[in-house]
């Protein structure tokens, strides 16, 4: 029997942002914005984020518009988007979860999960469960990604 992680519609991984939840797929966009911001100078352009995520520019524009309405990003047409404090906080929590899962699997079993696998698992686990994984590994970040550039973290650099 193979187990399958639930899709966005049924995932228990949605995190409240004050108005509604941030789905698994929406979280990927926030994490992508964070990673590109740490790698360069904000704002991040729609085309750049689309290429990073492997999605269409139209999808990025639609998602960014929704994030802006919810106060997760500040967006200036033709200039790009920047995470707000609330958006950055959510993205840093999601990245911490992903990183913790990746490090745990790699250090305890030698299994190297793909980013998308670790992200989904990290979002499905409770915060207490992710913190428990930290106890098995010497995780430098606690509760959120604390890096200020991609150069400081081998996980973000990939």
Describe the model.
- The chain is mainly alpha-helical and 158 residues long.
- The chain folds into two domains: 66 residues, Orthogonal Bundle (Arc Repressor Mutant, subunit A), CATH 1.10.10; 52 residues, no CATH class.
- It has six helices and four strands, in the order E-E-H-H-H-E-E-H-H-H.
- A two-stranded antiparallel ribbon has the order 1-2.
- Helix 2 packs across helix 3, helix 4 crosses helix 5 and helix 4 packs across helix 6.
- The protein is elongated.
> Which descriptor suits the 3D outline?
elongated
Helix/strand order, N-terminal first: EEHHHEEHHH
Helix count equals 6
Named CATH architecture of the largest domain? Orthogonal Bundle
Report the average pLDDT across residues: 82
Low-pLDDT sequence parts: 1-19
| Biggest sheet character | 2 strands, antiparallel
Strand content: 5-15%
Indicate the structural class.
Answer: mainly alpha
Q: How many runs of DSSP E, i.e. beta strands?
A: 4
Within CATH, the superfamily of the largest domain carries the name Winged helix-like DNA-binding domain superfamily/Winged helix DNA-binding domain
* Major sheet strand order: 1-2
CATH classification class of the largest domain: Mainly Alpha
Q: Quote the CATH topology of the largest domain.
A: Arc Repressor Mutant, subunit A
Distance between the termini: 32 Å
* Secondary structure: helix percent: 40-55%
**Total of domains:** 2
What value does the Rg take, in angstroms?
15 Å
């Amino acid at each position: 029997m193979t187990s399958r992680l639930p899709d966005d519609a049924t995932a228990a991984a949605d995190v409240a942002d004050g108005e509604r939840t941030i789905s698994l797929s929406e979280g990927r966009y926030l994490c992508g914005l964070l990673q590109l911001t740490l790698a360069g100078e904000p704002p991040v352009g729609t085309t750049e984020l689309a290429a990073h995520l492997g999605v269409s520019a139209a999808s990025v524009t639609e998602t960014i518009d929704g994030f802006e309405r919810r106060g997760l990003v500040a967006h200036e047409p033709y200039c790009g988007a920047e995470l707000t404090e609330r958006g950055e906080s959510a993205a840093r929590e999601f990245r911490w979860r992903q990183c913790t899962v990746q490090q745990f699997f790699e250090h305890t079993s030698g299994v190297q999960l793909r980013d998308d696998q670790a992200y989904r698992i990290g979002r499905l686990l409770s915060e207490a469960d992710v913190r428990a994984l930290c106890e098995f590994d010497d995780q430098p970040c606690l509760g959120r990604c604390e890096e200020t550039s991609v150069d400081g973290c081998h996980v973000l650099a990939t």
